[in-house]
## 1
Amino acid sequence: MILKELLVPKRLLAASALIGRLPSGHKQYAVIEQEFLRRLAGWHGEQQAAYHLDQSSLQHSYQLHNVRLTFDEQIFEIDLMILTPQLVVIAEVKNFTGTLQFDPVFKQLIRISGNRHEGFANPLLQADRQRRMLLKWFTARHLPLPPVSYLVVIAHASTVLSTSGKDTQIGSVVCHAEQLETRLAQLLVRHTSNWADDTQLQRIGMMLLTEHQEATGDALTRFNVAANEIFRGICCPICRTFHLERHYGHWFCASCGRKAKDDHISAVLDYFLLFGPTMTNTQCQQFLCIDNRYLVSRILKQMQLNQGGNGHGIGRYYLAPPHEFFHQHYTLFRQRTSR
């Protein structure tokens, strides 16, 4: 059973919104693009792992994707957590191409692509830290302590895995996503006694959901981008221009001739991703370049956004929709040849 589904990460969405509204010649464009592509690769890797997990015959388990918890003012994030009566399994998911070499001496991950060697943080150390933090989280809440195992899951079978030593732990912990079901079955066979029953698992799963903290952050500040450098307007997803016109209930792009009803949705979501969780009618008018408060009220009402504040008009504001809405309706930035 999936307790927390896999949703497109908010930090990927924010990077997408930012790179989609900057000129390619902006001084920070390359840095933001690198961040976007890195997070996009990670997202695709997690999708791959989730696909193989969905195809598995794993029973009597509770799955949580992208859990972000705090213990003793330290944040730890777990890509995938699986609660079973026998044990808890956490997985660190990686999406790399080329050849990955795990160095057991220097505890480093090296990616080899042609003649190029790149060093990365060791995902085994990352996963082990998450395991230790999770056990501390259980202890602090006076919960029964489960056996916790971890896996490092490599998204694609085309990625070649190797090690420079004879450390057998690496081979038992690292696997391709397509091997996930087999590795989980092997772990379950090793643990024959139960640490929790189904009722306890559900209770702990709900506690994890309640204490999950969504990642927040100011993308503009982080990448040193001024608000007045952001392109405003509703973007055509085909030709990437920001000059759509409203014609009889549709948005019309004069550049490519595309016509659609809902192109404003991604623009509204861009605002929440870049400027925060609240938005007034006036702010929406200014960001979408719509000089009609009644049209803005209508399209925001159609999005069924919750409202806050007191009274009508001035003082009222709209609240960002839940994460699931972004997942369902947001279109990630697509590479363009020019702007």
Note: The first strand starts at residue 2 and ends at 4.
## 2
Amino acid sequence: MLLFKKNLVKKRIRLRLRDQIIVFKQLGFFLKSGATIDECISLCAARVPRTNPRKIFLDLVKEDLASGCPLWQSIQKRIVLPPGLITVIEAGEESGTIRQALERCGQTLVKKDVLRKKTMAALTYPISIALLSVVLTGGMTFGIFPKIRPLLESMHTTLPFPTRVLIFVSDTIARHWFWGIVFLVSVFLSVIFISKYTFTRTFTTRVRDRLLLTMPFVNTLIKGQILSVFTGTMAVLVSSGIPLVVGLRRSHPNNVVYAQALDHIGSTVESGTTVSQALATHAHLFPETMVQLVSAAEASGSLAETLAFLSEYFQGEYEELVKKWSSLLEPVLMVLLGCAIGFIALAMILPIYALSQTVSAIH
């Protein structure tokens, strides 16, 4: 038991996004009653099963606080949380506004969770159609077709083109299924290897992020999601009193291209340039509308409110794009499914029809 606990201390806890939201919301709620942070953590951990990751995380944070570790540092050490939110918690501890900081973190995570759920809901139907098409075509190819294949081969005539294609595909899969499994396992192990080792992970991440931002249609979705998260995090940081330069460097989205651009923007702002002017130097990443609104906000002193508005705006644009593309994808998948089933049906029916015509001509 002691060894198990030592291993937990060394490792980060895999805390789901939903559990993170519950922790931050509960801490913010209990802090309103005037309880200390230690008491709040104990209340949050009460009645939670010992094996629950949330219980383990809260117990470890409580141990860290007892040893003199700041809350923000303990959270950073125990779970994966965006650097911007860690900065908000750190600023909240230093300024005595830890309750507001935790509530803002909870609100930011809720927005992230809502965005993810809406994306999954929009993609559920197209994914279901794709899986259904695989099941139906596989069942017809390897379940029904093998039963009538001996009859077709006994005709000793030239089979129609769809039938020959179907026979070739089924024979190829039946002959090389072992190597197909080996290939899939190799791809799976390669993904694990790439994600495990830092050098390969960093290299592939750079290639992936640059590629996604150059792909038509996909880059619009990626930019919308990144800008929504970035502006939302910046709004929380600015409203918490975090300096702009620190906020720009701590609100890095999960994209190497944007992270490098924000590093450059932070350095430019630090040298005396306004945020809007710095954003304008990366016009391919930040739209003109955003630059103009940020410029007006800087002049009026309402940067936090404008960033919060931009976050809602980009989130709405992202959701609309996901809905539109999923609605366009559904009929395309249905047509493809119909073509695949129709092709297999023709491959089975055409030879039988030709045989019946031949028999009728003889008689």
Note: Confidence is low (pLDDT under 50) at residues 1-9.
